[in-house]
Design a protein that fits this description.
Shape: globular
Strand order of the largest sheet: 2-6-7-1-5-4-3
Radius of gyration: 23 Å
Number of strands: 12
Order of helices and strands: EHHHEEEEEEEEEHHHEHHHE
Distance between the termini: 37 Å
Largest sheet: 7 strands, antiparallel
């Protein structure tokens, strides 16, 4: 069974600078690989695989020596992510987009990770030992480690662990241990046995302050200048932290809700909502984004596998509320 454990790390200023360089190398390789794929398919209808791209990156290192500052496995993982995104496009997902330095940054390394929980240290190739807060312990084989930086300049390490355990067998479906969930906006989830989970509306609660901070950010913006002032960048961080707080509140509430439902019932039935289509309604888009039905469904899916429960879906045109 695979589980991910996410910890916050506190790199030094020198390590932060090196991490930023690795982010740049990984982003450059990803964008170059995407451009190469697009040109090859446009010119000759040829799909270049990840092995060919990895060989090109190896040859590129002879001229672009600065690429050697990043772990070789991190560059290969970036190419693998591109190949997965490109494959998913032909299965119905959106087309891969070029990465930029203004969004969340991350890179992955599959090997060379060492941990010292008693000392609060984690070893990452090219970065050596970094201070880390281990608030949870785990036992198992480390598969992949991902280092990320949020837009609020917080650094995290996510460790994917194989605990060498099999997923539990699914429970027998019985009527008395089965529950149906009707998603809503006024109430986030209404269960078939009458239990209701309210919608805290975290975004709406913070809208007043968010409006003030965003207005202040807009006033500090220089329309015809590529470089913004220090006060603008400082205010931009304030707005980002407020959005991050709203997101964390929503995710925490959903985790508590989905864990409670999954542990109580053996079979859970949900409706297959067309969230993307519903988001096109400008009157409801903000409210739908605030409840985050897709994230709730995602959590129910993997927690049902963890606890050996059944998760069933019914058609979006069926009378689910009845």
């Amino acid at each position: 069974m695979l589980k991910a454990y996410k910890y916050r790390i506190y790199p030094t200023e020198e390590q932060k600078e090196h991490i930023t360089k690795i982010f740049g190398c990984v982003r450059f390789v990803y964008n170059l690989g995407l451009e190469t794929k697009i040109q090859a398919y446009t010119a000759a209808r040829v799909n270049i695989d990840c092995f060919t791209l990895n060989k090109q990156v190896t040859d590129l290192k002879k001229d672009a020596i600065w690429l050697t500052e990043a772990p070789a496995q991190a560059l290969q993982a970036s190419i693998a992510n591109l190949d997965n995104a490109y494959t998913a496009f032909f299965k119905g997902s959106g087309f891969p987009r070029f990465k930029n330095r203004y969004s969340k940054q991350a890179f992955s390394v599959p090997q060379g990770i060492m941990l010292k929980p008693e000392e609060g240290k984690v070893f990452i190739p090219k970065l050596r030992w970094i201070d880390c807060i281990f608030d949870r312990q785990f036992v198992g084989l480390i598969k992949t480690t991902t280092v990320s930086r949020t837009v609020t300049n917080k650094y995290f390490v996510s460790i994917l662990v194989d605990n060498q355990k099999d997923l539990p067998a699914k429970a027998i479906i019985k009527e008395e241990t089965t529950v149906g969930i009707d998603f809503g906006i006024k109430d986030l989830a209404i269960l078939s046995d009458g239990v209701k989970f309210g919608n805290p509306k975290f975004l709406k609660q913070s809208e007043k302050r968010l409006r003030v901070e965003q207005r202040s950010l807009s006033k500090k913006h220089k329309a015809r200048s590529k470089e913004q002032s220090k006060s603008y960048l400082k205010q931009k961080l304030v707005v980002a932290k407020l959005h991050e707080k709203i997101k964390n509140q929503r995710i925490d509430y959903l985790h508590k809700l989905t864990t409670s439902i999954t542990k109580k019932y053996d079979t859970i039935i949900i409706e297959d909502l067309n969230v993307g289509g519903m988001m096109k309604n400008h009157c409801l888009a903000k409210a739908i984004a605030d409840v985050s039905w897709s994230e709730m469904r995602r959590q129910l899916e993997y927690k049902s596998d963890w606890y050996g429960k059944n998760l069933l879906t019914i058609g979006r045109f069926d009378p689910s509320s009845k």
